[in-house]
C-alpha cells in the first residue's frame, strides 16, 4: 500500500457527512504538517500550497472532504476502512476522498522535487454534496487567482472535458375540484389537472432541443416526482411535477426554460439554476499537459455535477481515481492501486503544466 492509499484509509475512517467535516479536516492538516507542507485549515476547508522559486502560473487541484450519509445495505461498517485484496470499501472511498488523498500526496512529491516556478494549490473544501459548498468562498480567499484547475472527482483517471449542468424546475397545472362521479357528466367538462399534466408531459417528451454538444449530447428533461389529488373520489384542483433537466453548454439555462414554457400549457417555475454546465476551453494548455501524462486516456463528457461549476471561467477539467457509478451507493469501493497511481498522475500533470 502506497502513501496515497494509506492516507485514504485514514481519511475514510473519520466520518464526514456534509456539515461534519471538522475532524477529517484536522486529520488532513496533521498529515500535511507531518510532511512539512505549507497548510492552512479554516471553516472553508484545507489548503495546501507549494510555492515555486520564481513567479509563474497557479495550478489548482480541488476536491471535497464531505460525503453523503452511508445509508443502508452495507456488507461492512462504512467507516471501518475495510481493505480486502487491495480494495477499500468505505463511504467516501470514491467520492471524493480518493482524489483528496492523491492530490495531497502529489503536492508532497512536487514540494520534494523543488518547484522551479509557479504555484500548486490543493484545496479540499466542505459541503459539496449539498447546496452549502464552501468552494466559492475558498476560491475568493486565495492569495492569487488560479490559472487552471483539476477538479478531483471519480473519472477512472480519464479526463472529463465537459460536465452537465442542472436545472430544477416545477411544472404546475390547475383544475376544478368536484365529486369525481359528476366529472364526466357536466358540459362543459370541468378541467382535470392530471389530464392537463399528462398532455403536457407527453409534449415535453417530444420537445426537440436540437443542438447537440460534442461530448455531452442533448439536453435531457426528466420528470421525477408527480403530485396531485386529495382523495380517490375528488378531481384534483392542482397537479405539480418536478423536472430534472440535465443541461449542456449548447444552450443557456434561460433558453431551455423558455423553450419548455413554449411547449406546454401549464406553468413552469425555476427552483434552481445555479449549477451551470462546464467545459474545457478549446486550446486548453491543461488538457495538453494531461494528454502528455495520459496519452491513452480518452476524454469524455461527465453526466454528474461537481464544484467545476465554480471554476467555469478557468482552463479546467475533471479527473480522479475511481468509478463514478459507485458514488453514493452502499459498499462504495476503490482499488487502492488506482489511488497511488492517481497521486503519480497528479504530480506529473503539475510537472507538465508548471514551468
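^ C-alpha cells above, recovered residues below v
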Amino acid at each position: 500500500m502506497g502513501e496515497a492509499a494509506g492516507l485514504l484509509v485514514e481519511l475514510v475512517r473519520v466520518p464526514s457527512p456534509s456539515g461534519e467535516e471538522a475532524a477529517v479536516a484536522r486529520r488532513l492538516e496533521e498529515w500535511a504538517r507531518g510532511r512539512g507542507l505549507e497548510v492552512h485549515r479554516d471553516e472553508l476547508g484545507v489548503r495546501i500550497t507549494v510555492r515555486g522559486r520564481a513567479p509563474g502560473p497557479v495550478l489548482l487541484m480541488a476536491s471535497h472532504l464531505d460525503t453523503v450519509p452511508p445509508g443502508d445495505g452495507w456488507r461492512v461498517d462504512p467507516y471501518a476502512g475495510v481493505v480486502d485484496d487491495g480494495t477499500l470499501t468505505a463511504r467516501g472511498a470514491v467520492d471524493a476522498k480518493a482524489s483528496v488523498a492523491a492530490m495531497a500526496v502529489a503536492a508532497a512529491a512536487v514540494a520534494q522535487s523543488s518547484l522551479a516556478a509557479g504555484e500548486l494549490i490543493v484545496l479540499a473544501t466542505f459541503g459539496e454534496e449539498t447546496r452549502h459548498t464552501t468552494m466559492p468562498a475558498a476560491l475568493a480567499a486565495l492569495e492569487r487567482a488560479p490559472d487552471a484547475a483539476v477538479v478531483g472527482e471519480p473519472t477512472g483517471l480519464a479526463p472529463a472535458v465537459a460536465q452537465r449542468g442542472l436545472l430544477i424546475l416545477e411544472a404546475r397545472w390547475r383544475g376544478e375540484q368536484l365529486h369525481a362521479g359528476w366529472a364526466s357528466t357536466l358540459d362543459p367538462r370541468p378541467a382535470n389537472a392530471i389530464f392537463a399534466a399528462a398532455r403536457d408531459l407527453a409534449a415535453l417528451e417530444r420537445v426537440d432541443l436540437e443542438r447537440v454538444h460534442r461530448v455531452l449530447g442533448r439536453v435531457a428533461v426528466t420528470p421525477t416526482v408527480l403530485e396531485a389529488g386529495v382523495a380517490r373520489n375528488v378531481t384534483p384542483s392542482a397537479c405539480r411535477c418536478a423536472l430534472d433537466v440535465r443541461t449542456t453548454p449548447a444552450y443557456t439555462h434561460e433558453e431551455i426554460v423558455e423553450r419548455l414554457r413554449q411547449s406546454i400549457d401549464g406553468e413552469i417555475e425555476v427552483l434552481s439554476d445555479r449549477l451551470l454546465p462546464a467545459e474545457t476551453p478549446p486550446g486548453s494548455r491543461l488538457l495538453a499537459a494531461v494528454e502528455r501524462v495520459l496519452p491513452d486516456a480518452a476524454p469524455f463528457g461527465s453526466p454528474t455535477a461537481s464544484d467545476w461549476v465554480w471554476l467555469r471561467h478557468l482552463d479546467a477539467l475533471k479527473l480522479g481515481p475511481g468509478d463514478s457509478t459507485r458514488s453514493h451507493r452502499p459498499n462504495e469501493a476503490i482499488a487502492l492501486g488506482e489511488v497511488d497511481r492517481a497521486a503519480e498522475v497528479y504530480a506529473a500533470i503539475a510537472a507538465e503544466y508548471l514551468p
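The domain at 165-275 is CATH 3.30.70.360 (Alpha-Beta Plaits).
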